Every structure is written in structure tokens, then in C-alpha cells.
Amino acid sequence: MLGAMMQFPLTITPILERMEKLFGAVEIVSRLPDKSIHRSNYGDLCRRARAFAAALAAAGMKRGDRVATLMWNHAWHLEAYFGAPVAGCVAHTLNPRLNPDELAYIINHAGDRLLLVDDVMLPVYERVRDSAMLERVIVVPTTGRPVPPEYQPYAEFLQEGSSGYALPQLGEDEAAAMCYTSGTTGAPKGVLYSHRAIVLHSFCLSLPDCACLSQADCILPIVPMFHVNAWGCPFAAGMAGAKQVFPGPHLDAISLLDLFEQEKVTRSAGVPTIWMGLLDALDRHPGRWKLEAGLRVLSGGAALPEHLIRGFDRHGIEVRQAWGMTEMTPLGTVCHVKSSLSERPAPERLAIRAKQGLPAPFVEVRAVVGQREVPWDGETPGELQVRGPWIAASYYNLPGEQERWTADGWLLTGDIATIDPEGYVKIADRAKDLIKSGGEWISSVDLENALMGHPAVREAAVIAIPHRKWGERPLAAVVLKDGYEANAEDLRSHLAQRFSRWQLPDAVVFVEEIPRTSVGKFRKSKLREMFAGWEWDQTADGAA
Ligand code: ADP
């Protein structure tokens, strides 16, 4: 027998209507390039998102047409997040840190028709102007400087919509947003998010054991709005009616902490390299910022080193690790210590918190070797596979790329993980980052986390270097903290407390910085290039 409930499509439109009916006065705060603060509210956001939707319709944008954005995190970007999907268009966020060839490839592959670019990003657009096939480019002024005459200003575009425009009735499976993978692993691929996926993801993200968003919260997504829709925070925050704060282009630790204090931020989200900077600033300036009690932040995108969790605990800030992917909207797992484990000794609880966490509701996980699922014993690694209602079933317009999905419909994540009997997922590595030495696997992530636990180490990344006898051996690239000293032997002795001798990096190389990807993760492919000619027998430290 069927349930007797209404068919009510899960689309972004009711979120917009809810924001305007219930939360009109809730603030949206944007820090502008000159560091001044722009204040608006949900009422303004909804009016302007509707005007944008009307203008898109007047410009001939049809259902499913892609509207690209090239912008920092600010209120105008949020207007596109809502305005494009409620018009039936697809908000395609572009990553400005990609090189011009990649950017032009993505614009053309996605078939973007119209681009909304803020004036700070205009030089990025101008580098692809001749190769990107866009029909219209509209400029959002955020610097106070006049829009160059060859472009249409956003305010003028907003006037073009009809005042009688009514939002279309959308189906929940229609596309709402789009994001290309950042290309850490090969050519960028487009992921097309449906309204339904975004709505369900918003429910899940808001849960107490996920990002824990309530109306009374104030969220500052540090993760760029071009990185998997700022991990879905703007949609979830809109549904909750929470205050949203956007940092604009100012992502240095001091500017961020000032904004946390000034706007009374209670929730945030970003990658570990951001948290490393924030922790460093908090340690160097004790008592400088008065942050909200109960401040809780999500860390995702790369493994969260244990020392960061401990460091933030010291400052009364709870950092929770999440794992996900562009292909997963992006939430997959979030870590919290279950109530049944809350009496475990502190080091054990810390070790749990350093895992990637429990699968979010409706996200199914399994670790597989060959065709067989490995047991949830916390020891046997396998490739992590996932499925669920906000996980991509294919890439956009790449029919040849189906090998990322199993015949029975699971997404191959490319991550190697163990799952313990409690259900905690621990990512050992990306498959291609694992170090295979003498037939045994060494987790680069575990070595990095332990290295970053040394008091003198600011950052560390470990890569595999080919080795004649062992196949591969680990090399650690390390950045020391200012004013600290340590040599390779100090760091190896530190690691030897936790690792067997054969797992220790044979070489520790001190570098000025670890190269970053466009979304702030360590770029190991670049490190591998830097050390491509490494000869073990020529190292001062000697090979295994
Ligand atoms: P890219 O693949 O280009 O870096 P994504 O942002 O989609 O773009 O990256 C997803 C990948 O990031 C995951 O497959 C995983 O390897 C890594 N990742 C994400 N979150 C975590 C985490 N908490 N711990 C370890 N790795 C993570």
C-alpha cells in the first residue's frame, strides 16, 4: 500500500520562500575588498535573487541553462546561489585559482551561457575572454570602482527582469548547481547537483552531529563558495535562517579571527591548512580575540592532524572532522565521539576524533578489495565506496567516465580506508598517495599527522619516491615554525615513538612551503614533481 502523503518536490524554491517569509531581518554580512563591512539581510537577498531570476528569464536563459559565477564569498554570490536555481537555471561556480586553460575548458565543457563575475575577479576572466565561449558577462562591483564600460553592471542587469515574473514550478530532479572537481586527480570533471540532492544534504548538514545549524547560529564559511557550494553551508544556513558571514578575499588568520569576534560567529567550515593558520595566530596572540562560547568548526577536504584538534580544544573551540568529495555534495562522514564511547580515556577519544567519522545518514559506505567488502575491523584497508541520495551517479557529459561507478551503483572514491566495528571511517590515503614499500603499505597521512604533532613543525607532507630495492620509500617535506629548530634525526626519533622503523621516512627535507592546490590542500603532485629526480643513494640521510 502506498503512503497517503502529498507529492511535494524537494527544491530550493521553498527554501527561498521560507527565508523571505520567516527570516527577512536576519543579517548577511560581507567583508569587502577594502575591508569595510557590507550588511544586508535575508529580505534583501530574496528580493534580489528573485530579480536575478527574472532577469535571467528576460535574457532568454532557459531551464537547465548554466549560469557561471566567478566570485569570492559575499552576499552577491549568495544571490546567484539562490536566484539561478529558482529560475530553473544551474549555478555553476568557477574556481578562479585554476589556470586559464583549465578555466576556459570548464566553461566551454559546461556550456556556460552567462557569467557573473565580481570586479576583483575580472582580471581572471580577462585571461580567458578569448577562449571561453560565453554569451554575456555581467560584472558585480565590490570595490567601489566603476564597472569598465565594455561590461554590463549587475544592477543594470537586475532591472531587465519583468516585475510580474513568477518563479517556475520545478521538479526535484532538475539540476540546480554544478561544480567541477578541482583536478587534484586528473582533468576536471563536472558534477551536476539536483535540487533534491541539495535539499536533502541541507537537512543532513544541519543535524546536531553534523554542522549543527540552528536559527540562532552565525556561520562563516571559509571554504570558498566555488568549492562544492561552500560545502552546502549557504543552503543549510538559509533553511535554518542562520546569520551568514562572508570573508570576501581576506582569508588570512588575523582578518578571519577579527571577523569571528566582531560578528559573533558560532559555526565555520574550512580545510586544515586554514585551521593551522588560525591556531598559530591564536597561540601567538593569547587573549586577543573574544570568541563565542560553543564555537564549533568543521574541518574537511584533507586529513585533520590530531594536534589541531588538541590545539583548538585548548582555545575552547570544537573542531570536527568531515570527509567528503565534490561528487558527494560533499558530505560523506562526520566525526563525533558516540555517547557509548564518551567514558573512554582521553587519548582514545582524541584518536577517534582524528578519524574521518561516521557515515552521515543516508550515506552508505563499504571498503572493498577486489570484489570483496573488507570487514569493519578497523585494520583491513580497502577502497572506500559510497552511495546515497546526494552522491553523483555520473559526471556531466563524460559518457566515457563511468569506470568510477561499480556495476551495482557505488561510487569509487579513490580513497583507501579502514572502517572500525563502531563504524568510524579512517582514511589512510588517496590510493595514489599510499606508499608501497617492500609489499607493505605506509600511510602518508599518518606520518604527516604525527610529524605535524612535533612542536617545531608547522606543515609536513609525505610522498613516495621510487626505490630500487623496496619499490617505494617515504620522503617527508617539512616546514618548520618560525624560530624553531629540528633536524631530520629529531623528527625521525619523534616518529619512532609511534611507527616501526621500516615505516619512517628515509629522507626529511626542509622546505619553505608545501605547494597548495586551488582549494588549499597540499598539492602532492607538485611535490612529486619537485622531487622527481631524487636519488636515494645521494641523500645525506641514506635510504633504507
Ligand atoms: P580534489 O579531488 O580535486 O581534491 P575534492 O574536494 O572533491 O577535490 O576532494 C575529495 C578528496 O579529498 C577525497 O576523496 C579525499 O581524498 C580528500 N578528503 C576530503 N576530506 C578529507 C578528510 N577529512 N580526510 C582526508 N581526506 C579528505
Could you walk me through the main structural features you see in this protein, from its secondary elements to its overall organization?
This protein is an alpha/beta fold and 544 residues long. Among the domains are: 8-199, Rossmann fold (3-Layer(aba) Sandwich), CATH 3.40.50; 434-530, ANL, C-terminal domain (GMP Synthetase, Chain A, domain 3), CATH 3.30.300.30. It contains 16 helices and 26 strands. The protein has a 9-stranded mixed β-sheet with strand order 2-1-11-10-12-13-14-15-16, with helices on both faces. It has a 7-stranded mixed β-sheet with strand order 7-6-5-3-4-8-9. Strand 20 (411-419) and strand 21 (425-430) form a beta hairpin. It starts with 12 loop residues before the first helix and ends in a 14-residue tail after the last helix. The relative contact order is 0.09. The model is unreliable at 538-544 (pLDDT under 50). The structure holds adenosine-5'-diphosphate (ADP). Adenosine-5'-diphosphate binds next to strand 14, strand 20 and strand 21.
Brief characterization of the structure:
By secondary structure, the protein is α/β, with parallel strands linked by helices. Among the domains are: 8-199, Rossmann fold (3-Layer(aba) Sandwich); 434-530, 2-Layer Sandwich (GMP Synthetase, Chain A, domain 3), CATH 3.30.300.
Q: What's the CATH H-level homologous superfamily of the domain at 8-199?
A: ANL, N-terminal domain
Q: Residue share in helices?
A: 25-40%
* CATH architecture assignment name of the domain at 8-199: 3-Layer(aba) Sandwich
Report the sheet with the most strands, covering strand number, pairing sense and barrel closure.
Answer: 9 strands, mixed
- Unreliable segments of 5+ consecutive residues: 538-544
CATH topology of the domain at 8-199: Rossmann fold
Shape: globular
Secondary structure class reads: alpha/beta
CATH class of the domain at 8-199: Alpha Beta
Bound ligands: adenosine-5'-diphosphate
What oligomeric assembly is this protein in? single chain
Our measurement of the CA-to-CA distance between the termini, rounded to an integer number of angstroms, reads 67 Å
